[in-house]
Amino acid sequence: MGEDEADTAAGAGPGTGTGTGPALEVACDESGSDGENLTGGNTDVFAHAGVHVPMTAAALALREVRARIRSPAEEYKANHLLREKHRRVLEWLLAPGGPLHGRAGVHLTEKAFFVVDRVTGLLLADPEAAVALFRTGREDLGDEGWRVFLAAANRLLRGRHDGERQAPVEHFLATVDALRAARPAARTARVLDRLAGQRDRAEAYRTGLSGAPAGHIPVLEPLLPAIVATAAHWSAGGRPVRLVHDRQNVLTAERIAWVEETARRAGIALTGLELVVARSDARVQLADFLAGTARRIASDALNGRGDPALTALLRPYVLPASVWGDARSWGALAPGVNDPLDVAG
User: Is 329 within 8 Å of 301 (Cβ atoms)?
Assistant: First the structure.
């Protein structure tokens, strides 16, 4: 039985497993990592892609991309596909009938919303507060006020400290007080009032960072929860899944153990996570293509300059569990009931 035949016999595609049989192997890569600097980095979207394509088919797809682009580069990256002159190649890659369709998915993280979700989760333990604040904050506080709030929240949560360990707490609370004094609308003021009363929790968090072990899980690192979400998607229905991931400095042995333990506690059938060099695995290179192009397409949609055709091509790949707060752009990006990955998500 050939590789493609074995893949089909094993029940290719997400959500088709019954909890038995060999593990589905999914190759992964990310795009948009700025460390813990989520509000002042180079990108406003983080993307994590998973691709379930047999190695031989992935190699053929890479060869086809090379034949169509004809660049002398030794290793092709997503930015090759994002050049306007290669648009037809990107459309071929994502289109129905292309090498990824029905065999890939991408988890998106809107970084600003991720910060709001994390700070309200830490201080208020209230998921609804994140949505309420994010949906009203920019309008009520203005662009500058909203930017200042996000920066203060990012500084509070990041593991690195500049000088006094508790300085980010004082800066965050002073920022919240100043924004409250500006008398925002009641819908935003209610959440800010609650945040202003959480000094003890904020100080306890900063104190806890002092003794954090080497394998500490950064609150502001989107990669780790994205990997768990990717595993959850592909193991829907109980199918065992094994992830093969491009090497990342974030993925230490301790953090891989955290991913596997978190998945186990959530009932996700993740059997392992292996790190590889992207250039040695054609499947991971395809995941790099998807992550990088998805990040750019999603960022364009977020900032009101979305390309309707590319957004429509990306939509079937977007995981419903993506971390996204902007309602307008999510309306364009969210997978629909007829998209192949929505049923499995």
Answer: yes
Which is nearest to 32 in space by CA: 74, 69, 83, 78? 78
Of the candidates 285, 329, 297, 341, which has an alpha carbon nearest to the alpha carbon of residue 87? 297
Those residues with Cβ within 8 angstroms of residue 63's Cβ, 6 or more apart along the chain or in another chain: none
Lookup: tokens for 330: 């999510």
21-68: per-residue pLDDT in tens? 789 999 999 999 998 999 988 999 999 999 999 999 999 999 999 899
- Find the length of the chain: 345
Contact 227, 28 (CB under 8 A): yes
In the block, tokens 């307008």 appear at 328
Q: Give the span between the Cα atoms of 37 and 146, in whole angstroms.
A: 16
For residue 239, count other CB atoms closer than 10 A to its CB.
Answer: 23
Read off the tokens for 205.
């968090």
| pLDDT given for residue 13 in this prediction | 39
What is residue 331's three-state secondary structure?
helix
pTM across the whole model: 0.89
CA pair distance 212, 159, nearest whole angstrom: 9
* 24-31 and 45-51 strand pairing: antiparallel
DSSP 163-180: SSTTHHHHHHHHHHHHHH
**Residue from 196, 144, 162 nearest 37 by CA:** 162
Residue 96 DSSP label: T
Tell me which residue of 38, 28, 39 sits closest to 218, measured CA to CA. Answer: 38
Tell me what percent of the residues of the chain surpass a pLDDT of 70.
Answer: 88
Strand order from edge to edge, sheet including 270-276: 104-110, 45-51, 24-31, 241-246, 270-276
